[in-house]
Design a protein that fits this description.
Elements: E1 4-10, H1 17-29, E2 34-39, H2 54-69, E3 78-80, H3 95-105, E4 110-116, H4 117-120, H5 129-135, E5 137-141, H6 150-153, H7 160-164, E6 166-169, H8 178-186, H9 197-206
Parallel strand pairs: 1-2, 1-4, 2-3, 4-5, 5-6
Helix pairs in contact: 2-9, 3-5
The protein binds adenosine-5'-triphosphate (ATP).
Length: about 220
């Protein structure tokens, strides 16, 4: 049978329990042979945010995937790819290009895109949503605070045929965000409940999220 592969794009700054939970739930529910985690070098809708380097985010995702496969049975089900790495000149990474590249790489596969509810509900702001919906099936996972009701989905104007390729996975309720996590880390909390051990180690060794007092923002030139 054709391999069933999902791509899971995101900032992953850092990868946390919510990411792993949705990857696990999707892999189980949709019998995926592989979930490919794809950290995005420059997310077009987050251009102003100042994120950890692509190399650090890639390393953290690799560490999280390695911790996951230590469990045994589902070894290598999760992998990391640099397909969404930095473009020359720092141009943003568009998912439509990533999915096109992935399609060419795995022509015989059944391809899925994995996204949390908040991301998917924003799809109409992404580049070429219609092509995005054609290039892969979508697995959309519930996230607290982002109900996937019909009226929330309405702005996407899904046709009946498109709607059939969008699979909503309920049952995951992980109230965790990387933004809140970074804030806790900056306050000296190691967040062992939300990070896999190797990711927590990596963050500590590289001091990725130092407290703000240690890194005062430079005053802007106009002040
Ligand atoms: P940030 O707080 O920095 O915006 P985030 O926690 O939302 O980060 P991202 O790396 O931007 O994490 O997310 C990558 C993907 O994982 C997105 O599709 C997002 O919807 C999904 N996701 C992240 N956290 C959760 C969660 N707790 N539940 C469901 N989906 C999630």
């Amino acid at each position: 049978p054709a391999p069933r592969r999902a791509i899971f794009g995101g900032t992953f700054d850092p990868p946390h329990r919510g990411h792993m939970a949705i990857a696990r739930a999707a892999a189980d529910a949709f019998h995926l042979d592989q979930v490919l985690f794809a950290p995005t070098a420059r997310q077009p809708l987050k251009l102003k945010s100042n994120h950890s380097s692509f190399a650090d985010r890639l390393a953290m995702v690799a560490a999280a995937c390695a911790d996951e496969s230590k469990g045994g049975s589902a070894e290598n089900r999760f992998a990391v790819t640099d397909i969404d790495g930095p473009h020359p000149g720092g141009l943003p990474n568009y998912t439509v290009d990533t999915l096109t590249a992935l399609r060419a790489l795995y022509p015989g596969d059944i391809l899925f895109s994995l996204a949390g509810a908040d991301s998917f509900l924003n799809l109409h702001h992404w580049r070429e949503p219609q092509r995005l919906l054609a290039l892969s099936e979508w697995i959309v996972v519930t996230r607290p605070g982002y109900p996937l009701t019909d009226d929330r989905l309405a702005p996407l104007h899904l046709t009946v045929a498109q709607r059939e390729r969008v699979h909503i996975l309920t049952g995951v309720q992980e109230d965790v965000s990387a933004t809140a996590l970074r804030e806790r880390l900056r306050h000296g909390d190691p967040c062992a409940d939300l990070l896999s051990p190797s990711v927590a180690d990596y963050i500590r060794k590289r001091a990725l999220y130092p407290s703000r007092e240690l890194t005062p923002e430079r005053p802007s030139r106009s002040s």
